Amino acid sequence: MLKQSILIIFFFIFFNLLSFAYGTEDLSQIIDEEIEWMQEETFVFTATKTAEKTVKTGSSITVITEDQIWKMSAQNLADILKTVPGLGITVNSVGMTQIESRGIKTMFSEKILVMIDGHPINLQLTNGGSVQYAFDSLPVENIMRVEIVRGPGSALYGANAFLAVINIFTKDAENIDGATLSAGAGSQDTYNYNLLFGKIVKDISVATNINYFDTEGPENYIKQDAVGASGRTLLPTEKYDIDTKLDYKDLIFHAHYASRKSDGSFIGPTNVLNDGSRQDYREWFLELKYKYKVNDKFNIEPRVYYDNSHFDNLWELFSEGFPGFGQGDFPDGMLVRSAASNSKLGAETIIHYEFTDSNKAVFGISAEHQKQYDVEGEQNYNSLTYAPFPDGMQNVTDDPDQIWTVENDRKFYAAFAENIWDIRDDLRFISGIRFDYYSDYGETFNPRASLIWEFIKDWNLRLLYGSAFRDPTFAELYNKNNPAIVGNSNLSPEKITTYELGCSGKLGKHVNIDIAGFYNDINDLIVSGIPNVNSGTVISKGLEFEAKYTFKSDSFLAFNYTFQNSEDKDTGYRVADTPRHRGNIMVNFGLPKKWNFYTHILLNGSASRAQGDEREDTAGYMTVNTALTSKTFLGIKGLDFSLNIYNLFDKDYVYPSSSAVYYDYPASGRAFFTKLNYKFW
């Protein structure tokens, strides 16, 4: 039924857009000419590592601007990404955000590269730190725009730019120019405080954002966990986030720190409800970059960086009184504490060179040393027999038969090149290739090519071919003493080859349309087991359509629809936990006196189960979120107001789970959040 609903809405909106474009010329004449200029001059950086018009990048790309973020009153990155075609948002068993892209979803979202101002923020342990651990809720108050490039990006960015690249651009001193204090509160005893400051003094500019977030978290009802118990999820969480940029002429220093502590585990890593788990994550990076302009055609940008992440988690695998596995019970519960640090030390140099007015290139080299160290472990059971230790919790850090992983490191070296050639004014060819060498598994080559043809004025056809890779994580390589997952140091990188055909253009002055078909051939997927192996093969194909009608500069109707079908190439089974159909409708009305009303409708189709899981498909659902915002609230200059209502109609729906949680992971019901921003000067 949901599939038919999505298609009906799709055709209804599409044909209404046509009528708007060609049947309302009187309306068109009163719309600001500024809108057309804004549509034509949207520049992006992520797709080619150069500033290019969106239609000239040869990629399926979505840009979410600061103004759009304000209108939707997004409170976190997930609020932004769930409106993008080809992407989906769910949660895993410990309550962390998962990003699905083009029909592929994994525990740690490790096949999507997430960056802050071009700086990758993934963890070596799981490659999922970018959206999960301390960085899972970057303060939206500091986001200038988000660029989402769907498709392979390894030819420019290397590892993990497998299915998509998400680049979050933070605000500079020029964007801020003053100080803004924000305070918000909402459901689940959620509180958020933010201070944003930016100023330019002669050749020095400073931009700083400080954020504090606290919530009791969702208390959603679980009908039946892995041991048949029922109860409510537990995830009270406290977060700190500090971002600072200091520029002196062409020298740029960027530092970011984030921490996240949770006194709970949502459900838990073993899908067993418990009240004894805690999570503690801390991540930070430092980057120094210099922009050297040799002349108008030649620029060099060297940078050095250091990333560090640390976690210290206590997991209650089974609750108090657990009878064990026939070798003794656990009156305090079955407990394990794991801790480790990861670091990255690297350098990169990028060269931009313009051969002619119609031909330019980007060259780059990079090197990085990745390290896992300070591994610690405590537990109250034997990893080999699962019998309880007589004396309870024991430190097993130095016991190779008990500790969960080992300390290790690796290095990689890379070189890449990209050429952008305007063959004619209406024809562009982009080609690139990257070579990476990793000390633990060897080398990989990844090319990318796209052709963009403006076959009619304002209409562009694009063809894309590219490959990408996802390197094995330290967890996949070295984890051990685990009943279900054992690392394998001989793993190879996962590989994907992508073909894409797209078309974008305008109907009249005020309707923008983009459509893209994609075909992904994925090989050497790393499959968890004893040990992990490269054995997965998947074909993912589909279609993405989006359209936007702009009534005036602050009112619009937007719609996108995604069809995606992912199947195991060997068995023909659909890939689990991803819907075939998904649609978004966004309606925004600019109201008098600087008020704004925004509505987002998400239609998510049913998702198939894993092979061997006899449950019915996860049911589809429709949710409605609304936001009411005001500039100069109560007539006070510098005071802004926002009110969000999530899941307006209190829809009961779930995120897919493993068969251990029979009725899946329940999503939150209706929730509210309100916020005030005040700019001091």
TrEMBL record:
Pfam families: Plug, TonB_dep_Rec_b-barrel
PROSITE patterns (alphabetical): TONB_DEPENDENT_REC_3 (PS52016)
Keywords of the record: Cell outer membrane, Membrane, Receptor, Signal, TonB box, Transmembrane, Transmembrane beta strand, Transport
Biological process terms in GO annotation: siderophore transmembrane transport
Main localization category: membrane
GO molecular function terms listed in the Swiss-Prot or TrEMBL record: siderophore uptake transmembrane transporter activity
Residue ranges constituting the TonB-dependent receptor plug domain according to the UniProt record: 56-162
Keyword Kinase annotated: no
Family: Belongs to the TonB-dependent receptor family.
Name this polypeptide is given: TonB-dependent receptor
